[in-house]
């Protein structure tokens, strides 16, 4: 390599940094604004991940296949301890409690509805309402009945017909509770990282599955609005730094006229000086960087894509390895407060941020393993038969954040914004926030 070529290549590599340094960063607010009393603070959970007593389903089969680290077993037994978890959420001041109504649980055979399990969900909905919270119901959090597996699952072009039969049953029964609705949880992750990787669909049928999920969402969106005027309906997207526009083209762009808010799941960050997010791909989630300022960039990306549309962080949280301190030293309570700070900054900068769910209320089954811990309440599923809920320091932190409508006016994040963030490249590097 000659000298001119070396200089040319170094300039190409350095260009993003030069641009970032040349453009002034947005100044930090003198005071952190309040998010207001109408802001929706929530917590999240999902049926298969938390309920235990799991009926036959695609995921029970994956769990028992020997291909995962842990079988699901009892999980945290939300099926029988829901009152405790909902009460814990109430005591934090939470306004929204997210659950999923499991298709495999309520329809054990084609055309057969399990009244006992439907009545269980009735009790859960009533308890959420009596506790002063609004349900957020997920219709599909990656789990479908064993009989649907035997029919081919999403390889079967008629799967969407069966899916809609179940979804309409759930809507008819629970629209009276005025829930917020999530139709399909993280459809791109569902398709590629779950069904495809576990063999639930054949590679050539990936487009078929996505087409059916789009049809499912669009159809049930209209159905919900016919049963629940003024409903809020969406599908939450897993935000993946640098590649989100490509992923949105597969699903979100195809349902953009059928969403009442933009649902966003944000966990991991990446920057020019920190590429540790690759650890999430190896399922060592606790090693992946989770800089909270990435929330701001994810919100800004969708604010520009859908100007004025309400933005709701449906999932955000921080994993540890079995509750141990993270390698980067980031603590759950600090991450939660930092997240609240960046939500407030986004709203102050004109983004229509309306809600935030912490994932999750308790530790739970992380799709093949109990090692990653996301819970506000720690539960040692594999070692504690009593399944005791033990509050982390983040419980008190969240209670304080909710009570005050955000963090203190003089709060500053415990971690500085990343240098040359690539969460929404290139603009998150060239137009940084500080």
CATH superfamily, by name, is: Glycosidases
Please tell me how large the radius of gyration is: 22 Å
Oligomer status: single chain
Query: Can you tell me the CATH architecture?
Result: Alpha-Beta Barrel
In the predicted model, the low-confidence regions spanning at least 5 consecutive residues are 1-25
Instruction: Indicate the mean pLDDT.
Output: 91
Family: Belongs to the glycosyl hydrolase 1 family.
Keywords: Glycosidase, Hydrolase, Signal
Signal peptide: 1-30
GO biological process, one term: carbohydrate catabolic process
3D architecture notes:
Mean pLDDT is 91; it is low at 1-25. The two termini are 39 Å apart. The protein is α/β, with parallel strands linked by helices and 434 residues long. It has 16 helices and 13 strands. The chain has one domain (23-45, 90-357, 388-430): Glycosidases (TIM Barrel). The strands form three sheets. The protein has a nine-stranded parallel beta sheet with strand order 5-4-3-2-1-10-8-7-6. The chain has a two-stranded antiparallel ribbon with strand order 9-11. Helix 11 links the parallel strand 6 and strand 7 (262-265). The chain has helices at 3-22, 47-50, 58-63, 78-92, 103-106, 115-130, 146-150, 159-174, 187-196, 206-227, 244-250, 278-281, 293-305, 332-348, 393-403, 427-430; strands at residues 40-44, 96-100, 134-140, 180-184, 232-234, 236-238, 262-265, 311-316, 320-321, 353-359, 372-373, 377-378, 390-391.
């Amino acid at each position: 390599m000659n000298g001119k070529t070396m200089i040319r290549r170094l300039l190409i590599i350095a260009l993003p940094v030069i641009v970032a340094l040349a453009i002034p960063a947005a100044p930090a607010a003198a005071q952190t604004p309040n998010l207001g009393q109408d802001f929706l603070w929530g917590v999240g959970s999902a049926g298969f991940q938390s309920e235990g007593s799991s009926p036959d389903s695609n995921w029970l089969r994956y769990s028992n296949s020997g291909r995962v680290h842990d079988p699901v077993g009892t999980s945290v037994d939300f099926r029988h301890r829901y009152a405790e978890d909902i009460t814990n959420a109430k005591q934090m001041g939470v306004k929204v409690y997210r659950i999923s109504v499991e298709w495999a649980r309520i329809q054990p055979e084609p055309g057969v509805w399990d009244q006992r399990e439907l009545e269980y969900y009735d009790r859960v909905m009533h308890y959420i309402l009596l506790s002063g919270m609004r349900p957020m119901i997920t219709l599909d959090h990656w789990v479908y009945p064993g009989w649907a597996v035997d029919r081919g699952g999403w390889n079967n072009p008629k799967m969407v017909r069966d899916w809609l039969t179940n979804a309409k049953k759930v809507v008819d029964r629970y629209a009276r509770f005025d829930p917020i609705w999530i139709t399909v949880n993280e459809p791109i992750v569902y398709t590629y990282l779950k069904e495809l990787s576990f063999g639930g669909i054949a590679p050539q049928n990936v487009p078929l599955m996505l087409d059916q999920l789009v049809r499912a969402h669009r159809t049930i969106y209209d159905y919900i609005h016919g049963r629940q005027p003024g409903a809020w309906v969406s599908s939450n997207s897993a935000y993946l730094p640098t590649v989100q526009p490509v992923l949105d083209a597969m699903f979100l762009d195809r349902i953009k006229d059928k969403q009442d808010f933009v649902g966003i799941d944000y966990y991991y960050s990446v920057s020019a000086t920190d590429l540790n997010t690759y650890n999430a791909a190896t399922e060592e989630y606790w090693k992946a960087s989770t800089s909270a300022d990435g929330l701001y960039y994810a919100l800004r990306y969708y604010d520009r894509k859908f100007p004025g549309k309400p933005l709701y962080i449906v999932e955000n949280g921080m994993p540890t390895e079995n509750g141990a301190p993270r390698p980067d030293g980031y603590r759950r309570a600090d991450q939660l407060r930092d997240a609240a700070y960046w939500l407030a900054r986004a709203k102050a900068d004109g983004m229509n941020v309306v809600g935030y769910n912490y994932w999750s209320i308790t530790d739970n089954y992380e799709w093949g393993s109990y090692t990653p811990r996301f819970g506000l309440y720690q539960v040692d599923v594999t070692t504690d038969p009593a399944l005791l809920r033990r509050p982390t320091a983040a419980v008190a932190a969240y209670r304080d954040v909710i009570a005050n409508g955000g963090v203190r006016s003089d709060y500053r994040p415990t971690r500085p914004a990343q240098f040359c963030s690539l969460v929404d490249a290139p603009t998150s590097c060239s137009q940084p926030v500080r």
